[in-house]
Structures
1.
Amino acid sequence: MSQKSHQGHDFKYLFNLLFALSQLVNIFFSLAFAEGFSEVLGMASETDYGNPTAGPVALFFPVYLLWRGFNYKIIHWFGYHAKADLNYQYVPPTLLGGGLAIVLPDFRKMSPKYKARYQQRSKLFQTIFYLGFVAWTWAVCYYGVKICYAITEFIGITNSSSAASMGITIVVMMFAEWKLTQLYYKVFPKVFKLDVIMTEHSQPVVGLRKKESE
């Protein structure tokens, strides 16, 4: 009983709160950076078919994801880790079981067993995986937004309502981003012949594939 009581006195709720606050700051900073960078490049006043250009829109995600990745790294340095699955709170629920999701990780203190298993990861390929994920997300967003704009322009929605065009683009991109992200998670370990040794916040942690003993 005393051991369970001792284990219960950790700082997981504090890290959950600090992570959420940091992510809130991250969102505002990433939006400001994307807008400021677009102004430097002279893209702030440009439009694609009457909508905001895809460049500044897509630029938000690399900045956001890099900051988020650093947040997870800080949590690791303090001896905590995110559970395998993210905590989804849907607002409101839909017929597809989804909706506008408030997504937060749930942190736990690392056990010696977990730490030993986590240390089996390949630091090199884990870094390549995450940087590739950032680049992949940018590419999907950038080219996906341009394709959606072109389609809505072709069918005449943009001419009648820019807001409708933007709304359709957002919905389509949310679905496409989720599907293509899952594809990236599956393809990356196969391409580099890696093992997925565990999952944190719905992302694979990869390690070098062990050779079978003869």
Note: Residues 50 and 161 are 9 Å apart (CA to CA).
2.
Amino acid sequence: MLMKIIYIKLTDEEYKELEEKARKEGYVLMTDYIKAILFSPHSSEAYSLPQNVNDLVSQITSRLERKVQDLINPFTSQFEDLKKRIAEIVERIDELESKIESKPITKEERLPQPSQRKSFESTKKEGEKKTAIDILNEQGVVFESELKLKNADAYFSKLEREGARIIYTEKERIALSQEFFDKFIDKLKEIKSPDPAEAESKLDPKEAKLFKRLVSEGLIIFDGETKTWKPLF
């Protein structure tokens, strides 16, 4: 039988280690020991070890990811609460800065003569700075995209606390005074045409602008059963 020869290069240390293992296993010839290793039925298990190790690493990684997610979830709501509180603090700081910058009232101004009281009160009202809700009540509706705000979150949070209706779209927030909102909804109920352009023509410019924006965002749809335009917010 024709025999094949395989050469293996080993260092002195490697050869001594292999020789020691062969001796402990009871082999006289090194070649017999090497053959036994190569053709042992357990050798295939040794070759598949890296794949087993990879599977184990994948399982451990998956478990770690789930564990980390479980640890993070409780803090999500706390983060949102913290964000809201920061917005409120910034708002209060802005109000304090506005008061500090304003001119202090003198003793004589605080205690005007009876003959001057009516004139003083009238002047004071005219000089008072309008608040965000005052401006909204005058305009009826404001769009976030048209405002230049340092802190939009604080601005809309304050409006909402003071009674404004806030509509959240994918692109922006829209604030409406309660009076404007009620009139807008009442007008929608009276429009029976499913054509958006015709519906817009029955609204005033501000209402038509709001209507067009909300229709494009899918927040107002025409209800085929009631034959009216229905808000989804």
Note: Residues 132-231 form one domain.
